[in-house]
Structures are given as structure tokens and as C-alpha cells.
Write a structure and sequence with these properties.
Elements lengths: L1 H11 L7 H13 E2 L19 E3 L6 E5 L9 E2 L13 E3 L22 E3 L21 E3 L21 E3 L14
Bound molecules: 2-acetamido-2-deoxy-beta-D-glucopyranose (3 copies).
One 2-acetamido-2-deoxy-beta-D-glucopyranose binds next to loops.
Length: 181
């Protein structure tokens, strides 16, 4: 197991696949977040395809996956920076189990048109669910559960015609208590 990992690293050192523009976008994205627990500490080298919680396409080098799921001890907070828009090939985005302190889900997520999988559960997102999420026409999986949203579920989500799984449980918390377990 360890041997295989070492081999993979050695092979990967031959070329840098990371696209410069995407690396810079991720540095901006990281700078806007609060990462007290070092979840993104590997995000510092030139080849962003080697960073933890990221996967690049091995055909194009574009970033296709960002898995920023927190857990009890490690989580991020702060702002979700619009620089994510510089990742046009992003298919898989997880921001669950973090602490966004009641901030709204950014409307621009609705423009990441290649997204197939979006998990924003258990992250203390507040405000209204942006109707722009209904623009994610390739989405197969959407999890908004366990967030203290206000208002109604936008009917625009009905436009997500490819959706296979939709999680909307525990959207409202009226006593202000944190649902993180
Ligand atoms: C891309 O990487 C995956 C996983 O490592 C591998 O299965 C696949 O064959 C690779 N594709 C190409 C075209 O190299
Ligand atoms: C996204 O959705 C909003 C409203 O839900 C709409 O006004 C807007 O034009 C859409 N944007 C794109 C790029 O499709
Ligand atoms: C999406 O849904 C809304 C409300 O359900 C509707 O008004 C709008 O025209 C739809 N947009 C598209 C692009 O289908």
C-alpha cells in the first residue's frame, strides 16, 4: 500500500498537470476561507493536482473534484470565494460538515454548469436557497439537508431534470441551536 503510493508520487513528479489559472483561483479561494485546522495545508505547491482533496482530469488537467468535507475536528469556515468560477470543469463539489456561520449559499454556484454532484449539507448555510441552483442542468445529486435556511424551497429546483438524489431534510431550525453532531 505504502509502496504503491510512493510509486504514484514518483511517476507524478514527471510532469505538472495543474493549470496555472486554476491554481491561482484555488489560492484565492483558500485565502478567503478560515482554515484553523489545516484542512488545506497541502495547498501550497506548484502542482495543484497533487494537493489533497482535489482531483484533476488526467486527460485535460482541469480540476474535476473538490472534496472539502469536514469532520468533527477538521472543518473550514469563512467565505466561499467567487474564484471557484475559474474551475469550469468542476463536476463534484462537497462542502459538507463545515461551518459557514449562517452565510448564504453563493448564487454563483448556479453557474458551475458541469456540476454533477453538489453536497452542501451540515454546513450552517443560512438565508434563502438561491434559485440559481436550478440552472445546474447536469446535476445528478444535490444535498442541502441540515442547514438553517429561511424561506421557501425555490421552485427552480424543479428544473433539475437529471437529478437522481435530492436531500432536503432538516432545512429549518427555529431554536437557533447548532445541528452539528
Ligand atoms: C486516468 O486515471 C484513472 C485513475 O487513475 C485511470 O483509471 C485511467 O485509465 C486514466 N485515464 C487515462 C486516459 O490515462
Ligand atoms: C440562472 O437562474 C436565474 C434565476 O433562477 C436566471 O435569472 C438566470 O438567468 C440564470 N442564469 C444562467 C446563466 O442561466
Ligand atoms: C425554471 O423554473 C422556474 C420556476 O419553476 C421557471 O420560471 C423558469 O422558467 C425555469 N427556467 C428554465 C431555464 O427552465
Amino acid at each position: 500500500m505504502v509502496c504503491m503510493m510512493v510509486l504514484q508520487v514518483v511517476y507524478a513528479q514527471h510532469e505538472i498537470r495543474c493549470i496555472k489559472r486554476e491554481r491561482e483561483a484555488l489560492f484565492e479561494f483558500k485565502a478567503a476561507l478560515v482554515d484553523h485546522h489545516g484542512m488545506l495545508s497541502s495547498w501550497s505547491t506548484v502542482d495543484c493536482c497533487q494537493w489533497k482533496r482535489i482531483r484533476c482530469s488526467n486527460l485535460t488537467g482541469h480540476i474535476v473534484m473538490l472534496d472539502l468535507r469536514g469532520n468533527g475536528e477538521r472543518y473550514i469556515s469563512g467565505e466561499i470565494h467567487i474564484s471557484l468560477m475559474e474551475l469550469p470543469q468542476l463536476k463534484y463539489l462537497t462542502l459538507s460538515f463545515n461551518d459557514f456561520g449562517g452565510n448564504h449559499i453563493p448564487k454563483f454556484l448556479g453557474s458551475l454548469s458541469n456540476l454533477r454532484y453538489l453536497d452542501l449539507s451540515y454546513s450552517d448555510f443560512g438565508g434563502n436557497i438561491p434559485s440559481q441552483l436550478g440552472n445546474l442542468s447536469n446535476l445528478l445529486y444535490l444535498d442541502l439537508s441540515h442547514n438553517p435556511f429561511e424561506g421557501i424551497i425555490p421552485s427552480h429546483l424543479g428544473n433539475l431534470s437529471h437529478l437522481q438524489k435530492l436531500h432536503l431534510s432538516y432545512l429549518e431550525i427555529d431554536d437557533g441551536k447548532n445541528v452539528r453532531d
